[in-house]
């Protein structure tokens, strides 16, 4: 299947689904389309609540596209690529609608950042997480503020430093990244549908005001995340990063 971002709206619930054949990795085109879809749903009067999900069964999101990382030739291109993550997170942050996440599988790097930027994330027991950026010679600079906001600096630093090991869904649930952890897809989907149905009947103005409160103190992220993107865009050009990314690709 080809990569895609699709949005459907029914009875006030907008479902935004992204897919990439490489474990739902995120090239620049997908990041751009995700940000546009979230921004559109945020201003769509027919949308009351948003569900963010990915296609497939095994992985929610593998993070940055290794293939695209290897094509970056200079700092300008590096900034442009990593700004894609900044734009998606900022779109989620400023969206006046609640974003509920469906996490059916593993999350790596930027995928963890997407989950952290959701307002409420439901996951299955197979949704292990990992911030692998340091192992690739960079660091979780762009997604870091969202992850730290969600789980605290101590848990964030553990993930960022221990870049080679997975944390299981129960760990992520205890730290607050996942609001709910279910044994399988059926229980998660039942809970997701129930919550979405409840929220679509709620007062949109009240939810928008609540979201402002939840995200208070992040108003500077428009600048901060782009500054962080510049750091990643510079580091990814290093010989260390090039070699590390090649090793990661060879394992796939």
Written account of the structure:
- With 252 residues, the protein is an alpha/beta fold.
- It has one domain (4-199): 2-enoyl-CoA Hydratase, Chain A, domain 1.
- It is built from 11 helices and 11 strands.
- The strands form 3 sheets. The protein has a 6-stranded mixed beta sheet with strand order 1-2-4-7-9-11, sandwiched between helices.
- β1 (4-10) and β2 form a beta hairpin.
- α1 packs parallel to α3 (75-94) and α4 crosses α5.
- The longest helix has 20 residues, at 75-94.
- It is globular and about 55 Å long.
- The mean pLDDT is 96.
Helix count, per DSSP? 11
CATH class: Alpha Beta
Fraction of residues in helix:
40-55%
Please give the CATH architecture: Alpha-Beta Complex
Structural class designation: alpha/beta
Number of beta-strand segments: 11
CATH topology: 2-enoyl-CoA Hydratase, Chain A, domain 1
- Rounded radius of gyration (Å): 17 Å
Which sequence of strands runs across the widest sheet? 1-2-4-7-9-11
Integer tally of domains? 1
């Amino acid at each position: 299947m080809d990569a895609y971002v699709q949005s459907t709206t029914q009875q006030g619930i907008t479902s935004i689904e992204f897919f990439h054949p490489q474990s739902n990795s995120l090239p620049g085109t997908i990041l751009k389309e995700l940000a546009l879809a979230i921004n559109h749903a945020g201003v769509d009067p027919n949308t009351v609540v948003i569900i963010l999900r990915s296609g497939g069964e095994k992985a929610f999101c593998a993070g940055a596209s290794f293939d695209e990382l290897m094509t970056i030739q200079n700092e300008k291109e590096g900034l442009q690529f990593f700004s894609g993550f900044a734009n998606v997170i900022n779109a989620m942050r400023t969206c006046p609608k609640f974003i509920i996440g469906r996490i059916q599988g593993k999350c790596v790097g930027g995928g963890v950042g997407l989950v952290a930027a959701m307002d409420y994330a439901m996951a299955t027991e197979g949704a292990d997480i990992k911030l692998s950026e340091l192992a690739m010679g960079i660091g979780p600079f762009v997604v870091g503020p969202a992850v730290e906001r969600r789980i605290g600096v101590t848990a964030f630093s553990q993930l960022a430093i221990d870049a080679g090991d997975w944390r299981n869904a129960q760990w992520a649930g205890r730290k607050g990244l996942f609001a709910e952890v279910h044994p399988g897809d059926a229980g998660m989907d039942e809970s997701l549908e129930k919550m979405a149905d409840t929220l679509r009947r709620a007062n949109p103005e009240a939810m928008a005001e609540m979201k402002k409160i939840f995200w208070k103190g992040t108003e500077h992220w428009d600048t901060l995340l782009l500054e962080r993107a510049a750091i990643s865009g510079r580091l990814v050009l290093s010989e260390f990063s090039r070699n590390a990314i090649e090793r990661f690709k060879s394992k796939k």
